[in-house]
Amino acid sequence: QVMDFVDFLRRRVRPEDFVVLKMDIENSEWTLIPALLDAGAMPLIDELFFECHHRETPSTKTQHTWHDCKQAYADMRAAGVWVHEWF
C-alpha cells in the first residue's frame, strides 16, 4: 500500500507545528519533492534531512545528476525548508 504523503501532511500538520523529516526514499524523491512544491505543502516541513540519489553515486540507477540535487535543495530552501544533505 502506498501513502499519499502530500495528503498526509495537509491532514495531519498545521502551519504552527514544527516538522522535521528524514527522507531516504530510493529515487522516489524525484516524484515527491515536485508534488510537495506544486501542492504548496513544502512549507509545512520546517527541517529536512534528505538523501538525494543521483547518477554520480555508486550503485544508484537514475538519470538525475548532482546538479539536479543542488536544484532540488535550492527549490526546497526557497519554499522555506531548512534542508540538510544526508548520506
In short:
The chain is of the alpha/beta class and 87 residues long.
Question: Would you kindly provide a written description of the structure presented here, covering whatever features stand out?
Answer:
The chain is an alpha/beta fold and 87 residues long. 36% of the residues lie in helices and 14% in strands. The chain is built from three helices and three strands. It has helices at residues 5-12, 29-38, 66-78; strands at residues 20-23, 47-50, 82-85. Strands 1-2-3 form a three-stranded parallel sheet, covered by helices on one side. Strand 1, helix 2 (29-38) and strand 2 (47-50) form a beta-alpha-beta unit. It is globular. It starts with a helix and ends with a strand.
Radius of gyration: 13 Å
State the end-to-end CA separation. 26 Å
Q: What fraction strand? A: 5-15%
Structural class from helices and strands?
alpha/beta
What's the β-strand tally?
Answer: 3
Shape by Cα distribution: globular
H-E order:
HEHEHE
How much is the average pLDDT?
89
Largest sheet: 3 strands, parallel
| Spatial order of the strands forming the largest sheet | 1-2-3
Helix run count? 3
Proportion in helices: 25-40%
- Are there runs of 5+ residues with pLDDT below 50, and where? none
